[in-house]
């Protein structure tokens, strides 16, 4: 396995729409996903999308620790989504802090749907469908945005709520403690 280079904001790969994976069960995709997993763990991330490692394919990996799973408190194990699709359930949204491995050391407040349904393929080519709430829903939406060339700062409505994590921590450390530890 290999640790891949993470593209940072400003790189053109992060501004393009990723291509669908033709065969989710292709062993080359499984090998690539293994490298993505190693890269995400090395960077202390919660999620990673293929364009973030310079590959324009519709592949996302993520996990949710039990501590961050406010909806159920059990967390979500490492999950691979190939060619994911998202559908909001209801219109309720929430504003919360996000970080990103492609914007190291920065964070901002982003509005996201609180409840979604998503479908995708796994590495065996099986179709999966799930619902997600809370932080789980936020992570899936954040990572899938990368597949459409969208970075979280594009979704920030109040740019006063965007900046370097270290500076923002000085202003409101209690609200930001958890976000600083895990980047999407």
UniProtKB/TrEMBL annotation:
It is an enzyme of class 3 (hydrolase). Fe cation binds at residues 100, 142, 146. SUPFAM superfamilies: Peptide deformylase (SSF56420). GO terms for molecular function: metal ion binding; peptide deformylase activity. Its cofactor is Fe(2+). It catalyses: N-terminal N-formyl-L-methionyl-[peptide] + H2O = N-terminal L-methionyl-[peptide] + formate. HAMAP family: Pep_deformylase. Belongs to the polypeptide deformylase family. Removes the formyl group from the N-terminal Met of newly synthesized proteins. Requires at least a dipeptide for an efficient rate of reaction. N-terminal L-methionine is a prerequisite for activity but the enzyme has broad specificity at other positions. This is Peptide deformylase. The gene is def.
């Amino acid at each position: 396995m290999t640790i891949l280079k993470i593209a940072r904001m400003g790189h053109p790969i992060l501004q393009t729409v990723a291509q669908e994976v033709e065969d989710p069960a292709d062993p080359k995709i499984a090998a690539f996903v293994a490298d993505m997993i190693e890269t995400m763990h090395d960077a202390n991330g919660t999620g990673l999308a293929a364009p973030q490692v310079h590959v324009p394919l519709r592949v996302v990996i993520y996990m949710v620790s039990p501590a961050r799973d406010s909806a159920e408190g059990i967390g979500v194990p490492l999950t691979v989504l190939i060619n994911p699709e998202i559908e909001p359930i209801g219109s309720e949204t929430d504003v919360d802090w996000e970080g990103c491995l492609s914007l190291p050391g920065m964070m901002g407040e982003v509005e996201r749907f609180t409840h979604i349904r998503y479908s995708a393929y796994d590495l065996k080519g099986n179709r999966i469908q799930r619902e997600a709430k809370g932080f789980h829903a936020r992570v899936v939406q954040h990572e899938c945005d990368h597949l459409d060339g969208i970075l979280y700062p594009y979704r920030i409505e109040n740019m006063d709520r965007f900046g370097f994590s270290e500076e923002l921590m000085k202003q409101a450390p209690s609200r930001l403690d958890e976000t600083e530890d895990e980047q999407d």
